[in-house]
């Protein structure tokens, strides 16, 4: 947002108008919002304060939905005079690093802005997505937003002055000018721009898969991940659960089968060194690079292999190292040795993390066996909670290890509940605020 303020300040000066820009710059998303108070007047003498007072903003140009819907921004609006142009991209906050189940209340935020300004004067734009697809870089989204607002007649400056200001700024001139222009085009004819970025001959978005399709997709992935025998192992357990659930609850939604199909696959397909190598060397990564970038560029891979990474002297955690583009060739070779996974010859299998991952698989199979032994209507919720527990295990390294410990405590409670015949299950998921 500070870039937009600087551009408008330049442009106003070029037109001989008065302008003041007050940037309140925190560290976006983590320690505070970035807010710019921008005032433009016919003469500099007409500006008596740099800060916009409550109810005096004519335009809320929200480059971040979370900040735009915050109390400080909303307080500046008045439905009689204010308009809002807001980027509807959902940007994760620091809360997601502490709570993986945190909810981003996008719709509630949008409603807050609409109530403050009015639906007719509120415009939500997928600016980040459009800017990335049009120009290959999400950093262009702020100038894209400026162009959108300008085309709606909400910026009291000329396009020539703004484009000249972008040129004088001297930073990513062509990118910023194109972003401004594409923002204008989108405001003028959003359907045409959408058709441009999504031509009719482009493959449509895949439709959600039903249970059978999801199971088959997982089977196909496990064949690539390890082998046909590995995939057969997965399918056998899922089918046993499906048969048992259909007998116990005929005609009902197969929620237990869905849970096992997802979570057993998640545990079997843990992302180890061989899988990382396969994903980088199977051609898809290269295709995505070529689709998004052109010209000369250099690849660097930041990795922290347990057998090579040094420990941070302050917190004892492994530190990532940078590896050059030669790693693509190394990945290609390493992927061919996936047959060693889990065997006595697996050089990576001796690490604590890999041992824990394999133990999780065995423990989960035992838990499913326990569920099948005791499955009935009274404990269906408990069984489902136990089958879904691996969903709580996320991340890598020490983050994953911490999640494993928390899940193990919950699993013990659920197992005892199943074995004792108790109906109640512990509350595993906090309700979203």
UniProtKB/TrEMBL annotation:
Q: Does this entry carry the keyword Oxidoreductase?
A: yes
> Where in this chain does the record put each DUF6537 domain?
212-410
Tell me the keywords, alphabetical order.
Answer: Oxidoreductase, Pyruvate
Give GO terms: molecular function aspect only: oxidoreductase activity, acting on the aldehyde or oxo group of donors
**Span of the secretion signal?**
none
**InterPro entries assigned:** DUF6537, IorB_Oxidoreductase, Pyrv/ketoisovalerate_OxRed_cat, Pyrv_flavodox_OxRed_cen
Q: A Pfam family in this protein?
A: DUF6537
Ranges of residues in domain Pyruvate/ketoisovalerate oxidoreductase catalytic: 2-183
Protein name as annotated: Indolepyruvate ferredoxin oxidoreductase
Which organism was this protein described from?
A: Pseudomonas coronafaciens pv. striafaciens
